[in-house]
Amino acid sequence: MVEMVIKLEDESLLTPLRRVIQSLSGITQVLVRKDTQAKSETYLRHQARIQELCSLKDDWDDEGAIPPEKQAISNIKRLLEKSNDSDLRQWVIFPDTNGTILLENKTCDATISIGCKEFSYISQHLRGSHEKATTANLLKIIKKING
After folding, report:
1. Is residue 50 part of a domain?
2. Which of the pair, 70 or 136, is modelled with greater confidence?
3. pLDDT exceeds cutoff 80 at 1
4. 99 with 72: CB under 8 angstroms?
5. What is the pLDDT of residues 31-72, one digit of tens each?
6. Which of 49, 61, 109, 131 could form a disulfide with 93 if both were Cys (CB 3.0 to 4.6 A apart)?
7. Considering its fold, how many domains does the chain have in total?
8. Range of the domain at 77
9. CB of 111 within 8 A of CB of 103?
């Protein structure tokens, strides 16, 4: 069996192209997969950083730090998948010594600490708070901080 991959920038071409392909003899299946997240430089940078965090072991700082907890990693991965490039372009990711993950904004004085069930933030523009760690809540705060 041979597979062929075709990438389309114009989604309106999908239906006519599918009809043409299906009309050819020997075609057994036509699958369509929509790539919802273009892999931007920001996305790739954050994805690589998350992989680094996943490899941290106990005492990674030689002072007793614990590695990021699996749920905190899951939370930051979901955030990365659901965000736009502009949402996280100015942010950097760091591990914290208590198993949480820190997002720090490079252009303004803002930090978000992402845990398993909650996140907290502090910003020069917003009064810091504790929130339930959902992707929607995180994105809302990031967008507010970004202005």
Report:
1. yes
2. 70
3. no
4. yes
5. 777 665 557 889 999 999 999 999 999 999 999 999 999 999
6. 49
7. 1
8. 41-146
9. yes
For residue 108, is it within any domain? yes
Give CA torsion, residues 18, 21, 22, 24, to 10 deg. Answer: 160
Give the contacts of 63 (CB within 8 A, at least 6 positions apart): 97
3-state helix, strand, coil in the chain (%, to 5): 40, 20, 45
pLDDT at 73 over 90: yes
* Ranges of H-type helices in the chain: 14-23, 41-54, 70-82, 85-88, 135-146
Tell me how far apart the 2 most distant CA atoms of the chain are, in Å.
66
Res. 2: pLDDT tops 80:
no
In a domain, 33, yes or no: no
Q: Could you identify the residue written with the tokens 């062929």? A: 4
